Amino acid sequence: MEISPLDIEARTSPRLDNNGTAGALIKIQLPEDGATFETPLGILGDVADNNGEYWVYIPDKTKQITIKLPKSLPITVYFADYNIKWLESKTNYILQVVVNQEGISHFKRNCLYAEPKFQLGGLTAFGVSIGGFKNHLNVELSYLVGLSRSEEIFWNNSSIEDSSLHSYTYKSTQMEGKIGYAFYIGKPFRVTPQFGLGVVGLNGTEKQIGTSGFDAKDGYALNTSISVRLDYLILPWLGVGFSPEYSLVLSKSDMFERVSDVSSKIDGFSKGFNVKLGLFFTI
Hints:
The chain is 7% helix and 53% strand. By secondary structure, it is mostly beta strands.
């Protein structure tokens, strides 16, 4: 899409909105019959079909147009994707549209999504993400529950007169927020580098109980991650996601640090390489 400075129809033959403001004219080059058009501000007058070029008058300051075809999915064009903030009064534009006849879906540039996901790696877990895209900007929140337990870890509190051992096994949970920037590659592919901050919680279950009331149950670690979200769209509202990521620890509570020093498995809950697999639904 681009401005057509040599065309003058929008100036010489303007169409006015209800406030008397002249609209803009888009010449949509689309070799398909039966197309209809919608915008949030409406359409000014009838649409003319000039041998595969639709002339559509649109109100000033319109930011998007939806093209509907009898045998294809609707196509919404956001003018900001082409460095045009909105349409200007008495200005001509040309929009070239190539319709995919194979029915491959296109990503919505502005959408919300929910994604059940499974994670493999240092922390094997299952959970859900919710997020959204605003053109290229991505924001995502996730909650994961660890599926595996640590080995049994024994404690002996030497500060009290009790030599009996206490033991725990630990599971983890993770909450994380990410921001990213999306690149749309081809029709059904999207690549989104992401940066994240998260909290890994550690929760212990007492297996061997001593007589002192000793407690080493809870701990946490703060971490950061770098990942790449790879999405493939199956249907307009359904797709699969694959996200390799690497996490680093920023800080640990005293209890988390103590158990991670003696357990490489617990240490892996908060740092290292993981891969997430998910099925996302968009609205």
